[in-house]
Structure formats: structure tokens, C-alpha cells
Amino acid sequence: YSRDQFMKGRMRVESAATGFSGIRNDFSTALIVLMGMVGLVLLIACAYVANLLNARAFMRQKEIAVRLSLGASRGRLVRQLLVESLVLSVAGGLVGLGLAFVLTRGLLSLVPSDGQPLLINAQPDTRILLFTLGLTFLTGIIFGLLPALRASRPDPWTTLKDTVGSIAGTGGSLFLRKGLVTAQVALSFLLLFGAGLFVRSLQNLKTTDTGVVLDNLVTFQLSPALSGYTNERGTQFYSQLAERLRSAPGIASAAYANMSILSGSEWDSSMSVEGHRPADGEDMQAFMNALSPGYFETMKIPLLDGRDFNRMDVKENSKVVIVNRSFAQHFFKGTSAVGKHVGWGDGPDTKLDMEIVGVVADSLYEGPREGIHRQVFIPNWGRNSATFYVRTRTGSAAAYSLMRNELKQLDAALPLYEMKTVEGQLDETLLTDRLIALLSAGFGLLATLLASIGLYGVMAFVVVRRRKELGIRLALGAQPGGVVWLVMREVLLLLAIGLAVGVPAGLAVGKYVSSQLYGINPHDPSIAAGTVALLAIVSAAAGLIPARRASRIDPILALR
Questions:
Q1: How far apart are CA 432 and CA 154, in angstroms?
Q2: Cα separation, 352 vs 334, whole angstroms
Q3: Other beta carbons less than 10 A from residue 242's beta carbon
Q4: Model-level pTM?
Q5: Tens-place pLDDT, residues 247-294
Q6: Phi, psi of 306 (to 5 degrees)
Q7: Minimal CA–CA distance to 352: which of 334, 340, 364?
Q8: Which residues contact 417 (CB under 8 A, 6 or more apart)?
């Protein structure tokens, strides 16, 4: 790098008070996104409860008017209604706390532990309990206060008269209920749109071409160095085990590598390349792996040029390498890479003493998010830990015991660990994305359910409020279909207002979660259109029940 580029670099310093945690680093951003979704669901639930409290207060208008007439103060009535709201809030908080224990354990069951104890405590600590308690009281007070204030100021004279006005309620009350429903629709769009983005992103990650055929491919790991093996003995042991596995019934091929693929781990090194002068600041890094002969055949990675490693190449300080297509195209544009030389490091005195003997097709190294890298492969030699890859002819489960038995025949004391399918390894790598997609979809559906129930409640109240008007219309010859449309028009209006707020907000929020997405535009129009269509269908279904009820009103009973 040039001095100017070096001086532009920034050093990021983080607190070491809590030490280093791979789990925390992997899940912190995802959990922040999910916390935002939980907040939106909480707002929708609070708006729903506020609507119910408002309706309940309206039904108790006569009771409250009687209390005021008998001398009760408004402050005392507000306190009574707030206590009722807090009782509901605390009861809901306790039920939610119980569900949190159950659901947290269910979520942790999705985290792979490979038979080892999972070092995550699922029990809420004092801070979480205090936060939940405080939030419960806060939401109970805030969303119970407005209905309490509205309910505590009726006109006793008007309310106590047995008239239609006492049943209909005020226009302000209805306006508040409709406002809460439109807010629910807007927030539901945010959650559903986000869920759609995360689910599509997960689909893109799972369908990304890895460059490796994953069917019937099993992996496991060994560490002979921990059992006192020397480099020579480790090399011989690996070769013998690979041969025994290849000749075992039901196994097509077997090979091993120093680094496991699709696991998020990596080994890279700077390289010097024959005939290539690095440009100022050019990245000369290549991702490395040490392989056994037959690795590319086992993984079904095509050999494009040259040859594979052979037994003669497996030795200390071997001077042959294989590169992938991306490496060859970057450094040897239009010419064959076979026969060219590379060297470790990128200094001017680097020895170019390693010959390229083959070129293979590109394949993923860390995982789908990281994409294709330039890769250099060297022969595997020594006692270092290795990851075996075994291609079976049938289902992988039946081959597990066979592999353990073959290892036991060579060294019964050497532990075998991390045995799984490579498809399972990929699922573990995508664990964060699966959790986000699963939870966001659940939150979105819950929010849609709450919004639809809230919309149904408001429209049922509208029908009751306009019962006389609708009865007059039917008595004067209005068709039931026209009455249905009269009610559904209000449903569509509430939906339109909610979407007018939710759609721009959802598109604006999309850019803040773009770092968690893969292969999808955070403003994807198809997902936005699908979300709008889903909300429209759910809203229409919620409004259709009170609309049909309105079309069946008996004019005589309504006008009596």
C-alpha cells in the first residue's frame, strides 16, 4: 500500500471488558434487528389493547356518569381505570415471561451444539426481569391513560338519557379507534415487508451455487497431533485412513483437507506471481488450503487444466500448487496458468519456487455471503488437524458407523468429532439468517393477526353506531350489496391510509437492514406488492363479516 492509503486507514478499538465471543459477534447485529421487530409488535399490541380499553370504557359510560353524578372525582375514576389497565398489563407480562422461557429453549434447540453443552444461559437475569417489569408498567400507563381520560369526562345529563346518542358514542372516540387501526396496518406492513426480505435472502443463500456437489457428502475432523503423532506418522495415518474409507462398501471416494469449507473459517496468505507486477495497493491475498490427492474428485469440483496432486507431491515443502479459475484469470489473463510459478509473500525478494500444476473450477470457501475468492491449494502433509470428506453411495446416516469403525481399526484412541453432512454444515453457517427469517416471519404474521382483529373490531363498532342509518337506507330500498360496499369502503380507506404511511416507512427502513440481506434489493418491489396484497386480503376478510352483518339489519328493529 502507498503511504497515503495507509494513513487513510482507521483503527477500531472495542472494549475488552466482556472478552471475545464468536457467538456475540455472529448474533449481535441480528439480535438488534429482531429487537426492533419486537418493539414494533409491542406497539401494535399496545394499540390493539388501547382500542379494547377505549371500547370497554365506552360501554361503561353510564356507570361512569352515575359515579360522577354521585360525587366521584375525575381523578379517582382515572386512577381506577388505570389500575384495571395495569392489572391487564401485568397479567400479560407474566404470561409473556412464561412463554419466554419456553420459546427461548425452543430457539436454543436450533443452535448446533454437536453434543457439547451450549454455553448460553436461557434464564433471564435480574436486568431482563427489571426491564420487562418496567416496560409492562410503562405500556400499561401510557396506553391506558388516554382511554381513561376520555372515559372520565362524559356529560352525565346526555349520557344518562336513554337515547340513541348514548349508544352511538362520540365522533372523537371513533376517530381515535380508526387512528389506532391505521397505525396497526402501517406497522404490520413494516414487519411483513421485513419478514419477506429476510425469507427471500435466506432462500438466496441456500440456493447459491457452492461449486461442490453436496449430495451424500459427509465430513468429520481428526487431530492426531493431540495424540502425540509426529508429522511423518500423521501423514501416513491420514493416507491409510483415506485408502480404507475408499475401499469400504457404500463409499464412493474420500479425501481430506486442512481447512473445512462452508464453515466460516479461512486461511489466507499474500502471494507473488510470476510475470505479474502488483499495482500500488493491489490485493495479493489468496485463500489457502492443504489437500490430499483425490480431493477435487470427492468434492466433484471439475479440473479445468493440468493435473491433480499425486502421492509423490505429498511431502514436506512440496513445490507444486493448484489454483482456482478466479486466481488464474486474475493473474494470467487469456493464457494457461499451468507451468507458471508463485511464491509465499509479496516482497521483492520472494522466491517463485512453487509451480502451478493444475487449475480447478471456482467453489465457495467460507460461505455464500463471502462469495468466490482467489484460492491456492497445496498438498497436505503433517500431523495438523484435518477435515475428511467422504462421498457415500447411499444415505449418509448408514455410513457414520462404518467410518467410526474404520478409524477404530487404525487407532481406537483417536477421537473423531464434528461428524455431519456438508449440507448440515452449510445450515449451521446460515444459522443466523435462519433465525432472523423464522422470527421475523412469526412477528409479521402475529402483527397481521392483531391488525386484522383490530380492524374487525372497529368496523363492528361502526356498524353498531350506524345501525339506524343503515336501517333507514334498507327501508328506502337500498340493496344489501350497496350496504356491504358502504362498510367495505371504510375498510379500504383505513387500509389505504395505513399503507400510505407504512409503505414509505418500510422502503426507508429497508436500507438499515441491507447488511443482513443477500442477493436482494432492500426496496424489492415484488415483496412490497406481495405484502400490500396480503394486507388487503386480510383486511377485506376482517371487514367483510361486519359488512355482511350490516346488510342483514332488519329495518323495523333498527328504527324501533
A1: 53
A2: 21
A3: 24
A4: 0.79
A5: 998 899 999 999 999 988 889 999 999 988 887 778 889 999 999 999
A6: 80, -145
A7: 340
A8: 114, 220, 221, 222
